[in-house]
Predict the 3D structure of the following.
Amino acid sequence: MKTITVASLSGGQGKTTTAYFLARSLAENFRVLAVDADPQASLTFYLQHQVEEDQPTLLEVLRKTVEVEDGIYPTPTENLFLIPADRALNQAQEYLAGSGAGALVLSRRLRDVQSLFDFCIIDAPPQETQICLSAIAAADWLTIPIEATVKGANSLVFTLDAIAKLKDVADYEGEILGILPFRDRWFGYSQSKDCREALAAAKHIAEDIPFFPSVRESEQIKKAMRFGNTLDEDLNYPFAQMVEAIALLQSTVNNQQPSKTVKSLAV
Ligand SMILES: Nc1ncnc2c1ncn2[C@@H]1O[C@H](COP(=O)(O)OP(=O)(O)O)[C@@H](O)[C@H]1O
Ligand SMILES: [Mg+2]
């Protein structure tokens, strides 16, 4: 199982949207486990899971009061399973902080189901909490969505900083698959000036980290959300390239060739 964490240290950057579509796209060809690591529980909502009072969630999985498998539920999508979250996940904070190696806990727990899935997709929370660090540290590969705004460029700075800190203290070896510009605004053939400038700043900050093609601002999505709909089957999201890059990496890993192509896969 390869674990991909969707992380970005601000709200509204596109983490949950990315995790949702990525997990669903990968589930067309692979067995996928989605993990909702955000107490806001948006991924749980999108995957139409209702947490009942006595049902284990990620909180119980992290605290090890249940077997990991007991916290995994099917979703309406075939081959896609979920470890859900609810508000109570905030309580994991204390447990992780007190455990001495909070950042390593999720990665350890997921080892138990390593052989059951091809991919695990983790939706990280927006603040630099212990849960967030644990979600980042569990990743073999990371995807960082950033809104095409100044806030998005700042989120990239905070996220790269958190990853660098993990590399320092925990010998973390996760690789950044790419940065995904989110809600990029275009008018016909021309990109809005604000988005262009924000993404130019982000590319400067990112140095040699690759960028995926932007997700454009879409009225269709906004409307769907305004009416409280969960995301619709028909909404086509431009994750084909990300899924292709991941599947290619996966086959490279399976063939036991070096995975040094990571950086050149996404443009
Ligand atoms: N292409 C899009 N255009 C406009 N709004 C979008 C688009 N995709 C998602 N959204 C909306 O953007 C908001 C933030 O996205 P979300 O994935 O929840 O971010 P995060 O998980 O980082 O907080 C959500 O309300 C979502 O419905
Ligand atoms: Mg979210």
Remarks:
- The longest helix spans residues 150-170.
